[in-house]
Write a structure and sequence with these properties.
Number of helices: 15
Keywords: Cilium biogenesis/degradation, Cytoplasm
Protein name: Dynein assembly factor 3, axonemal homolog
Number of strands: 14
Low-confidence stretches: 27-33, 343-349
Subcellular location: Dynein axonemal particle
Strand order of the largest sheet: 4-10-2-1-11-12-14-13
Family: Belongs to the DNAAF3 family.
Helix content: 25-40%
Pfam families: DUF4470 (PF14737), DUF4471 (PF14740)
Mean pLDDT: 90
Number of domains: 2
Largest sheet: 8 strands, mixed
Strand content: 5-15%
Shape: globular
Radius of gyration: 22 Å
């Protein structure tokens, strides 16, 4: 919960790559067209965060430059309404007007809200102002139309809209809106560790060096991982102080007079928010290591990748990274002092951040009701043959039935997230991957690549429908 366990994907690019592979078996080539409009529907079934939406939007300009005009309709479904509120807030940061903040400030703000249990005072202040803006947008259609016309809440039930309103209200700094994240984190950590609690540093090192680094977590440094496991603060810089509660991590909000009852912190405490943007990079200079020590932390890779995506969202031009802008903290021992105490009501927003969001032509984002989870898995006739791409989060695979396949088009891309980037035992990882592969096989899907021929572990598995050559060519023409 709260972040995904696989890297952010340009889902439009993934769809095009799948289509190209399907066309390779056809002898006759498709005619060249100067401008080709491609419209696809993408289902995010429990993706936990908006990483795929952000990367896909950021790369739209590159597809247009190649002569393809994408029209992409995202359908986002999650069983927890507070997670949807968090989705919206993170999208709001990514698409914040350049007039409101500079590029690096936006990146560090996003990293704060996305991966830290405690925020900087400036990030907390932004969240307060943004909450007011989001509340207004949710309750006033004219406001939403002027600020974010590409967001659609029509599928949400009234109780779910009330849930969004509760979340946005809870983020405001009022006396009854208390979220003691440090206490919740410490109590849950003690419970999860059990008898190992007094030796938790050793357990943290084992989980990282013997488990996660043996999978795809080589870029995570020991210092940042241990600090996150102990405090819930993943992305740190020595010049910043983290003191304010990140209320986007609260779930199960129920109003009780002027106060709120909630479930404390119930998210991941073993992997961390490093997978989405912090493990891979097109800039291989940030992935170098020497004598077993990374030159750059996962935090630094996350910063660089978000700089690229947010630059492309704002300017629709390629990003060139100056390596001098990335701090080489991989092997540096940073001072990790005690987190500061905070006063819940000592700050109020100076700005409402109500400028129109950056508009990406051809993008529509529709948030679905939690009830649609069961309609989709049952292959409800309303959604029949609707989606070109479906991404299924690892913790939502349990909801799937064979009838789910009915909502996918014949020429579709199905992406299943594995449990690779968890600290589960290798036997459990393998067993879960076998379940995913068997699901695909039973429902007449084949791997986009030949997974059985690769001796490699995968955080995601990509599938397309099996078709005979004649039907495949007919569909592609």
């Amino acid at each position: 919960m709260f972040w995904g366990l696989s890297a952010a994907l340009d889902l439009f690019e993934e769809y095009l790559n799948m289509s190209k592979r399907s066309e390779e078996s056809c002898e006759e080539e498709k005619p060249n067209e100067e401008t080709k409009i491609v419209q696809i529907n993408i289902l995010l079934f429990g993706s936990n965060d908006p990483r795929h939406v952000i990367k896909t939007m950021a790369k739209m300009y590159a597809h247009k430059a190649k002569g393809t005009t994408p029209i992409i309709n995202f359908y986002v479904v999650d069983g927890c309404i507070e997670t949807i509120a968090r989705h919206i807030a993170l999208l709001g940061i990514a698409l914040e007007s350049p007039e409101s903040m500079n590029l690096r400030g936006k990146v560090h703000l996003f990293m704060d809200v996305y991966g830290n249990s405690l925020l900087r005072a400036s990030s907390y202040q932004y969240l307060v102002g943004k909450a007011k803006s989001l509340f207004k947008m949710l309750t006033d259609d004219e406001c939403r139309e002027s600020m974010t016309p590409f967001l659609n809440f029509e599928n949400l039930k009234y109780r779910e809209r009330d849930g969004l309103e509760n979340a946005f209200r809870f983020w405001l700094p009022k006396e009854g809106h208390i979220f003691h994240i440090q206490e919740y984190w410490a109590a849950r950590l003690r419970k999860l560790m059990g008898v190992r609690y007094d030796h938790r540093d050793g357990a943290f090192d084992w989980d990282l060096n013997m488990v996660l680094k043996d999978r795809e977590g080589q870029q995570i440094c020991s210092q940042e991982y241990r600090h996150w496991r102990e405090t819930g603060i993943a992305f740190t810089y020595p010049e910043y102080e983290y003191s304010k509660p990140n209320k986007t991590l609260a779930v199960g909000l129920v109003r009780n007079g002027d106060k709120y009852i909630h479930r404390g912190y119930v998210g991941d405490m073993q992997t961390g928010p490093f997978s989405a943007f912090g493990l891979l990079s097109a800039d291989e200079r940030l992935l170098q290591s020497a004598h077993g020590q990374n030159d750059y932390r996962s935090t630094d890779v996350t910063e660089r990748n978000l700089l690229e995506l947010f630059h492309e969202l704002s300017t629709e031009t390629p990003y060139e990274h100056n390596l001098k802008d990335s701090r080489r903290y991989g092997s540096v021992k940073l001072l990790m002092g005690k987190t500061l105490l905070y006063n819940e009501c000592d700050i109020d927003a100076m700005h409402d951040y109500d400028k129109p969001w950056i508009h990406i032509e051809g993008i529509n984002i529709r948030f679905l009701s939690s009830e649609d989870i069961f309609k989709l898995r049952n292959g409800d006739e309303f959604w029949s043959n609707h989606f070109d791409v479906a991404f299924v989060g690892y913790n939502y695979f349990a909801f799937l039935k064979n009838s789910f396949i009915k909502v996918l088009k014949k020429k579709c891309l199905l992406i299943l997230e594995t449990k690779l980037m968890t600290t589960a035992r290798n036997e459990d990882i393998k067993l879960f991957e076998e379940k995913l592969m068997n699901y695909a096989k039973v429902n007449n899907f084949t791997g986009v690549i030949n997974y059985s021929a690769l001796n490699k572990k995968h955080s995601i598995l990509k599938y397309k429908r099996k078709m005979d050559a004649e039907e495949n060519c007919a569909n592609n023409h």
